[in-house]
Amino acid sequence: MAAIDTPASRPLTMTRIRPGRILAWTVLFIGGVLMITPILFMFSTSLKTAGQIYDLRLIPQSPTLANYVKVLTEGQFLRWFLNSAFVAICVTLSNVFFDSLVGYTLAKFRFRGRQLVFIAILSTLMIPTEMLVIPWYIMSANLGWLDSYWGIMFPGMMTAFGTFLMKQFFETVPDDFIEAARMDGLNEFTIWWRIAMPLVTPALSALAIFTFLGNWTAFFWPLISTTSKELYTLPVGLTSFAVEQAIQWEMIMTGAAIATIPTLIVFLVLQRYIVRGVMLAGLKG
Amino acid sequence: MATFELRKLVKTYGRTPVIHGIDLFIPDGEFVVFVGPSGCGKSTTLRMIAGLEEVSGGEIRIGDRVVNEVDPKERNLAMVFQNYAIYPHMTVRQNIAFGLYTSRLSGAEKARKVEAAAALLGLTPLLDRRPSALSGGQRQRVAIGRAMVREPAGFLFDEPLSNLDAQLRAQMRIEIKDLHRRLGTTIAYVTHDQVEAMTMADRIVVMKDGHILQAAPPMEIYDNPADVFTARFIGTPSMNIIPAQSDAGVLSPAEGKAALLAGIRPHDLTIGAEVVDPALVLAGKVTAVEPLGPETLVHFEAAGQHIIATAPAHGQIAVGSRVTASAGRGRVHLFDGATERALGRQ
Ligand SMILES: Nc1ncnc2c1ncn2[C@@H]1O[C@H](COP(=O)(O)OP(=O)(O)O)[C@@H](O)[C@H]1O
Ligand SMILES: [Mg+2]
Q1: Could you say which of A64, A99, A122 is where a domain stops?
Q2: Which chain B residue is nearest to residue A180, measuring alpha carbons?
Q3: pTM
Q4: Whose CA is nearest to atom 9 of ligand 1?
Q5: Which among A183, A202, B21, B165 has the fewest CB atoms less than 10 Å away?
Q6: Are residues A29 and A77 in the same domain?
Q7: ipTM rounded to 2 decimals
Q8: CATH 3.40.50.300 in chain B, residues?
């Protein structure tokens, strides 16, 4: 097929392989439109006045930033935003630290019961969150964690998925690096922190992105575990625009639009670390 | 500065023994090369000395201290790995400085030592590069720099040159040997390459299947190999081994299983040169001719064996012709046909 793409044979390819391509592009295009339309409408609606929101044109007739001013100055939106940021950042840092600590241990140390521990961790992946919410709630109630930051965060401080992901990545770190560091006199914790962790930055970035996004948008558990408005996270807070004085779509959309900003930042900052092949450079070429 | 001593050292993986109770004393400042075929237990032995592998039995002493239970970092040894294992996320400078991780020197003092090590290894212009921007030879030099900057009691090398091309390997052999001469530190060096062993070692330790067959200076091993395996392993091309019998001091090739094995190095088995009173004469049909320049290797079949002999450079020997090769007195190594142990020379 490679020869077909040379300029000289272009006319032929038009009829030969385009059907497949066209199909692929069409599917991708439709998928893209489906994904991006709600986002465009979100931004569009956030620029409309309350009276215009059912006027479904994409470009608002008289765009205004009034909604933004209102969302940011009235009510507790900023507080919710900071709550979400605090929760998502804490949980992300905790996952990056503990998931990789456990993943590294499972990948690089041989000890009795290692496989058993690993299987036990993996098996928790099979339990759906819905089933866990009630035990979490009862546990929080008994321990007095309801309606607190810790109560929102504790179920996600470590995840089986993150541990699994990190274990798989640490297994690709050659033992030679670890042994070289041992010879250089580092203790095991420092070897993990100074040598192994920098070698898996792509995985750490991916884990951080997933965890941050997951917690930034988390709705169900924060809703259940909090009662005071001061502790609402952004998604929970946004729904209060809907329940109190009818549904204020323009306010919800404005809040949601602001809420996307940190996710974009996190993604843009971290994705450049997701580059392959860092690790091999220290070994034979 | 340190001496190493292995006493009845044993290693088993699960139930599989891989090192069978070896004894060895390495005096201070000696350059010892462990050599043997792949899988014979060289790395395992070295890694036990390093402390990276647990000892299953026996003792390892560094100086007069038993180190079986001592952590690698407490042993004050530095190791260079086959794959270099320099940290890819650090610059050359940081990599070398990592060798000083545990030292209590001031920052300035450390920097000075790093610079000195880099200068010694010709790495000064590369100090701020990352490993990905270095060639194989440069990476290995960084690994050596990281090892030497700490001024350890001993160096351990595990096949450090086997990933380099032939030319670079020859150059690095000389560099490492020169480094040893200047630093005078004890070195235990593992390789499967007998040329490396011959050219670098003060003493060669020949290993096979978890046993030490012979530990002696290179020329001693070359001249008086302790058994057939060592005789064939050291020296290229390998020593010819033929079943032989001895009648009243006269050697002749034997058929089938013989009480004796005669070993003759190709270099000592000559074609076309006059040998007075030869110890052994072999005749056969030439199967291959390899001119090397200064001399020519002649392969032929004799006594049912494949034999390699040498002929003068410009001798005209054709494949298929018959040749007679002879070895002078004192050039034939005799081995016991059953145990393959050396019995002396004839
Ligand atoms: N971690 C291990 N588990 C089981 N067997 C091993 C392990 N490491 C090495 N071996 C075995 O021990 C023997 C010696 O290995 P090694 O010391 O690496 O040989 P060499 O370095 O001489 O090539 C080999 O047969 C190898 O298969
Ligand atoms: Mg080895």
Answers
A1: A64
A2: B85
A3: 0.82
A4: B44
A5: B165
A6: no
A7: 0.84
A8: 4-231
